[in-house]
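Exercise 3.2. Students should predict the tertiary structure of the chain below and write it as C-alpha cells, then compare their answer with the key that follows.

Predict this chain's 3D structure.
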Amino acid sequence: MIDRLYRSRLFRFATGLVAGAALLAACTQMPQQVLRDEPARSATASAAPAAPAPQLGTQWGEGLESKTRAVVTKRLSAQPDDVASLGYNEASAVRRAVGANPERRLSMMLADGDVEWSVLDEEGRALPLQRARRGAGPDDMFRLAGVEGARYTLRFRNLSERSYEVIATVDGLDVLNGKPGSLRSGGYVLRPLQALTIEGFRKSQNEVAAFRFAAPGRAYAANSEAGDVRNIGVIGAALFELEERDAPRRQRRDAAPSRPSAFPADGADGAYAPPPRYRK
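Answer key:
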C-alpha cells in the first residue's frame, strides 16, 4: 500500500520534495524524518508481572519498494494528541508478562478512537495483542508475541474526518531516520478515512528495510550508533492533528508518553535511517 508522509515544522509551514505517491513530514527544531502511520493506545498496570528481558528485536531486513513525496502541512499543537507504546517478545516471555487470562484484542485505538493501530504479519493478518488485566502501573502495556525471522508491518487506519501526522519508532529508533525517537521529529501524514502501512525503516524516498523479528544481537538498535539495547522490544506511535481548513477539530486533551523509552531523544541529524553495522 502506498504510504502518505509529510515534512512539517511545529507552528511553521515548510516545503519539501515531491517524489512518488506518498507524503512525508519533518520538524524544524529537529532534523527531518519520515514515518508511516496507524494509531495505537497503551495502558498502565502496577500489579502486572515484571516484563521479561527482551528475547526478540527488530532487524534491518530486505529492501522493499515504498515511494514517498513531501507536502506542506502544519500541526495544530506542539503537544501530541496521543502517544502509545506496544511491547513485543518471544511467546513464552509474553505469557509470563501478561499472566493468566489476559485482556486480548487485535488493535489499539488512539486519539479518542480516531485512529486504529494494529500490527500485521506477512499475510496481512492482525497479530493478537495482550496485557495483564490486574493492576494499573507503567508496565501494563499491550504486548504481541513474535517469531524470530518473521516479517511484520505497522498499520494505521484513520476513522475520522481529521488528518494526523504519525510518528513511529521501533526499539526506540525513528523508523524514518534511524535516530533516537523524538516527538519533535517529522512523520507520515494520515489523511481522513485512509490507511497507512509502515513496512520498515526508511532507506530513501523509494525504499524501506523490512521489519523482521530477530535475536536482540541482530537487531538494528544493537548494530547502530544511535541505537540503545535497553529500548529493544518496544514499538511507539505518536499522533499530531494537522491543520485542515474544512475538517472539524477534535476537542484536545493532554497526552504524555506512556513509555518514554519509545521516544528517547529530542531529535537528531539525518533524513533517513543509515544501514546497520553488524559486529563480526
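Discussion points: Residues 8 and 26 are 4 Å apart (CA to CA). The two ends are 36 Å apart (CA to CA).
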